[in-house]
Amino acid sequence: MAKYSRSAGKDVKRAMHKKKKGTLKSGKGGKGGKVKSRKQAIAIGLSEARKKGKKVPPKKSSSKRKSSGSRKRKSSSKSKRKSSRKSKS
Predict the structure, then answer these.
(1) Structure confidence by residue, pLDDT tens digits, 19-78
(2) pLDDT in tens, 1-24
(3) CA 25, CA 31: separation in Å to the nearest integer?
(4) Are 29 and 51 in contact (CB under 8 A)?
(5) Which of 5, 8, 69, 86 has its CA 20 to 30 A from that of 42?
(6) Which residues, 6 or more positions from 7, have their beta carbon under 8 angstroms from its beta carbon?
(7) pLDDT at residue 48, as a whole number
(8) Euclidean distance between CA atoms 43 and 58, whole angstroms
C-alpha cells in the first residue's frame, strides 16, 4: 500500500517547479520570502496536498520542542562573578 497518492506527488512536483522558477513563497498566503531550500519546497507541496484532502501521512509531532521548552536555562558562572581587576594608578 502506498503512503502517498499520485495526486499528492503532483502537488509536490508543482511546488518544486515553482521553487525552481523562483515564484514559490513561504508563509500564509505566500506573504513570506522566497523558498530557497529543496526540503521546504517539498514540505509546502505536501501541506497543500493535505489541505486538499489527498492521501498523505500526518505531519510528525514536534515532541522534542515541547520537552525542551520546559527545561530551565543554566545561568553561566561568568555573569555571577565580579571582576576582581585592580586598577593601576
Answers:
(1) 999 999 988 888 889 999 999 999 999 999 999 999 999 988 876 655 555 556 566 555
(2) 889 999 999 999 999 999 999 999
(3) 7
(4) no
(5) 69
(6) 49, 52, 54
(7) 92
(8) 12
In degrees and rounded to multiples of 5, residue 73 shows phi and psi of: -85, 135
The domain ranges of the chain are: 6-55
For residue 19, the SS3 value is helix
- At 45, which amino acid appears? G
CB contact set of 24 (below 8 Å; sequence gap of 6+): 15, 18, 34, 35, 41, 44
DSSP assignment of 29-61, as one string? GG-S-B---HHHHHHHHHHHHHHHT-S-PPPPP
Which grid cell sits at 80?
555571577
